[in-house]
Amino acid sequence: MDTQESQPKLYGSVLIKAKEIMDYLLMQPKSPTLAELSRGLNSSKSTTLKILKTMEHLGFVRREEETKRYVLGTQLIPYATKAISSFDIANVAQPYLEKLRDETGETINLGIPVNQRIVLVSKLESSNSIRLQSTIGGSMNMYSSAMGKAVLATYSADQLKRFLDTTDLRPVTQNTITNQNELRHDLKIIQEVGVAVDNEENEPEAFCLGAVLKKDTQLYGAFSISTPKYRMTPERRTGFIRMLLNTQHDIQEAI
Questions:
Q1: In three state form, how does the secondary structure of 4-40 look?
Q2: What does residue 227 show for φ and ψ, rounded to 5 degrees?
Q3: pLDDT tens digits for 195-232?
Q4: What does the alpha-carbon distance between residue 87 and residue 92 come to, in Å, rounded to a whole number?
Q5: Contacts of 49 (CB under 8 A, 6+ apart)
Q6: pTM given for the model
Q7: Which residues contact 118 (CB under 8 A, 6 or more apart)?
Q8: Which positions ≥6 away from 76 have C-beta within 8 Å?
Q9: pLDDT of residue 129
Q10: Cβ-contact 67, 30 below 8 angstroms
Q11: Could you give the 3-state DSSP secondary structure of residue 68?
Q12: How, if at all, do strands 117-124 and 107-114 pair?
């Protein structure tokens, strides 16, 4: 197939650049300055500033006066809330995730892959669970989270190579896998057992088990059980894996 014919013709280059700016702000661990944004997006300062001023007027970004750094604006919150509430997989999965929360007594998370990260779209906490750092609408690394690694394990060799070529495996905790060969080995194990493990890799003292939600060739997202590391005994781990896979089966049947 001719690659030019297969690519859609897009209009609105400024809109595309604004999307790139928001993606960049979303991905950075620290809010960038104008100069850092310009370098990161390979765009001139003048062009970047013009777009930022328009986005600031619309409430899509905000400039912190003291630090001169840019952050995403609060005007995006209602859009995110509406998108999350109307996302089908969250509605389909909800009763099954609630059951899993009640069975495990732990926090249950549902996420979707967006721009090489996992965005949390649902978080169900039980009275027995601890509060983790993750928040609905927030995102986490694919390579350090159970949900993210479960998704990565479904990637083809070419997809995984592209991900690794464009992703800096930065340590989030002392347990984060930052070596590409080690990550590839971990993903092979996930492919074999169907369950991803985050052993204090994304947050200290937190242990997560994750699995994807996929039907036919369509990837809908992933979900996980999060528990304090000290509560994850071998017996509980075996039981949680069984419940995780049963829940995965039930949700995929309901899709």
A1: HHHCCCCCCHHHHHHHHHHHHHHHCCCCCEHHHHHHH
A2: -145, 155
A3: 999 999 999 999 999 999 998 888 999 999 999 999 99
A4: 9
A5: 34
A6: 0.68
A7: 111, 112, 139, 140, 141, 142, 145, 147, 148, 151, 222
A8: 22, 59, 60
A9: 64
A10: no
A11: coil
A12: antiparallel
Cα 157 to chain center, whole Å?
A: 20
Q: What is the pLDDT of residue 187?
A: 98
Say how many C-beta atoms besides its own lie within 10 A of residue 23's C-beta. Answer: 15
- What pLDDT does residue 217 have? 84
Structure-token pair, residue 253: 């049947």
| pLDDT attached to residue 6 | 47
Q: Which residues contact 107 (CB under 8 A, 6 or more apart)?
A: 101, 123, 124, 125, 126, 129, 130, 132, 225, 226, 227
Both tokens assigned to 170: 């930065």
For residue 198, give the 3-state DSSP assignment.
strand
Q: State the number of CA atoms in the 13 A half-sphere of 57 facing the CB.
A: 7
Structure tokens at 34: 């104008």
Cα dihedral 67→71→73→76 (10° resolution): -170
Amino acid at 107: T
